[in-house]
Each structure stands twice: as structure tokens, then as C-alpha cells.
Fold each of these.
Amino acid sequence: MRVPRHVAIIMDGNGRWAANRGLPRGAGHRAGLKPVRLCIEECARRGVEALTLFAFSSENWKRPITEVGLLMQLFLEALDREIDELATRGVSLRFIGERDGLPAALAERMRAAEARTAANPGLKLVIAVAYGGRWDIVSAARRLATEVRAGALEPGQIDEARFAAALALDGLPEPDLFIRTGGDRRISNFLLWNLAYTELWFSDLLWPEFDGVELERAFADFASRERRFGLTSEQVGAGAC
Ligand code: IPE
Ligand code: IPE
Ligand code: MG
């Protein structure tokens, strides 16, 4: 079975999962940790190179301050709790997103986790926190503009490869498989540039319900797709891509 090199997931539906049980939204966010562990283990086991998880979007800052505070607290606790095991399993961690507004303690743990696991040879785990696809593209444009102003780059040298290298996922293969749980079929400002040719797969399960069976369905569906990248089916059949 063809295995995606890079899987990107929008983990959606925690709040509804909690509401369905008469619980506060935070209970849903807590319950969302189990499928996170499962996806990390399963992706590592299947030989997936990179897994990117959308944990908190640029727009999620607009949620009630109590929920935002709770999420930040949960990220910190989860990182403290999981980092040893992730490091032991050889996972290398990277965070993408705008760090400026994050609580200082969380930003420091993120930095430390990245430094500690940077040389690990296993699964590349990317957590998108305070991330937005538009923010990513604007940041890249700003970086390139700064290089141009410094005289290190000519505008004519900016091509797709150079632009991609200024984005947050630089160095990783583009996502092959995108999964969104929670029933909504939208991108919600996730990896706008990088999803250009990603295979999209949507699950009606709420994130805390996401399990190995559903993940297997996503992988199996991915393996059955013909990826043409603009070519004809005949060209693909002849091995052109
Ligand atoms: C996803 O679940 C987690 C975050 C966005 C932080 P939600 O909190 O969006 O859950 P629903 O979509 O309201 O059910
Ligand atoms: C997307 O979920 C962001 C994350 C899962 C982190 P949202 O719940 O924020 O997306 P919308 O608002 O339904 O589009
Ligand atoms: Mg949601």
C-alpha cells in the first residue's frame, strides 16, 4: 500500500464532543490528546516521514479568553507530560506559528523541546500553534522583501522554490494526505500554500472519537487515489510522476 510521506490533520470537533456529553469544552480538548498519541504512534509505525497537527489557529485567539487560557495550559501540560516519551521514540518536534503572543512559559518549553529533539531520526512531528496559512505566506513575503532590501536577493530570483523555502514547513515534503475530522469540509486557514496538491479526506467523527479504524480508512483511501498533478492519466500510467 502506498504510504503518504507527510500527513496533515485538522483536529476538529472537541467542543461538540464535550457538549454532546453535557461537559465543558475543555473536557473535549483534554479528550483530544488520546487520538493525538494514536496518530503519532501509527504514523511512526507505518513509516510516515512527517505529521503536521493543527492545534490552534490564528483565528482561535478570538475565542473566549477562558478557553484560550485553558488551551495554552493544556498545551504546556501535554508537552511536559509527553516530551520524554517522544524523545525516547526518536520523534523530532517542530512548532510552526506566530510565537509572539504565546505565554512565555509555553514558548520556552517549545524551544527546549525543539532543541532536545532536533537531531532525532524518527517521525518529524510538526505542531501548528497560533498558525495561519495567510500569516505563513505574509511572513515569507516579508522575509524575502528583507533580503531584497539588503541586496542579497533580486526580485527576479524569487520563484516557487525560493518562496516555499521561506515558509514554515521548509525542508519537509509537501503534505500528501490531509485529514479533517468534525464533519466540516474546509481548510480554515491551515497550510494554504502547501495543500496545493494534497489529497483531501474528511471524517464525520469528532476529534476525540478518531481512532485507528478511521485512520486506516484514510490511509486506504489515499492509497487508492490516482494523483495526476495536472498530467493525464496516461502520462501518470507511463510513470511520468
Ligand atoms: C478543535 O476543536 C480544537 C481547536 C480549534 C483548538 P474545536 O474546539 O473547534 O471543537 P468544535 O469545532 O467547536 O466542536
Ligand atoms: C480549525 O478548527 C483549527 C484547529 C483545529 C486548530 P476551527 O474550529 O477553528 O475551524 P472553523 O472555525 O470551524 O473553521
Ligand atoms: Mg472547531
Amino acid sequence: MRPVSYAVAMEAINLTDKLALIHEHWSPKIVAELNGQLVKLVKFKGEFLWHHHEHEDELFMVVEGRIRMDFRDREVWVEQWELIVVPRGVEHRPVAEEEASVMLFEPATTLNTGNVRSERTHEKLERI
Ligand code: NI
């Protein structure tokens, strides 16, 4: 039998309820954890900064609104219920013309601003 060491109860996680707890933009919150990966929710509005992640691929799934993922050579619109994977090492900049809600799935080591440190970097993420 597996030792009970989970910090997380085996319960349904309602994303709408969790999103109602998020009041700032570009500040990811942890909603679940598995296999060293985190599931996060974040609200985007406006332009983020250009960055890349040396070691992590990132998944962005749009749950409300739409976002644009800018790459150096093109831009990709990601609509509600669409997702995009940004491979490690690839420079990107998420943009949301209107507020959008996004689910992220990425290793626990992933920093939101990747290789760039700024006032928009969040090192310690809140769990909601
Ligand atoms: Ni990124």
C-alpha cells in the first residue's frame, strides 16, 4: 500500500471557482501537482516580456478569452479550449488584448519569466 503523503486531497478541482480567487495579472497560482509538474492558473492582460526557458517545455491552455503567443518569427492566436506547447529554448511572449484565463502545465522548476529576472518574476507561487 502506498504511504499517504499527499499534500493534496483527491477531490475535484473546479477551475471556475479557482479563477474567482485570482485578482492580479501575470501571477500564476498552483492548483494541482503531479510527477514533479505543476498545474497553474493565471490571468493574462496586456503584454508579458520576452523570455525563454532553458530546460522546460511549457503548456498553455486557454480556458477563458484568447491569447496571442508571439515568437520571434511569427505569432499564434490561441482561442478558448485551445492549447499551445512552447518548446524549451524558444523565445516567446504571451499577449492578451482582453483579459484571458490560462491553465499552465510545466515542471515545478519553471520560472514564469524564464531566463529573465524582473519585477514580474514570481519565485514563490501561492497555492489556491
Ligand atoms: Ni514562458
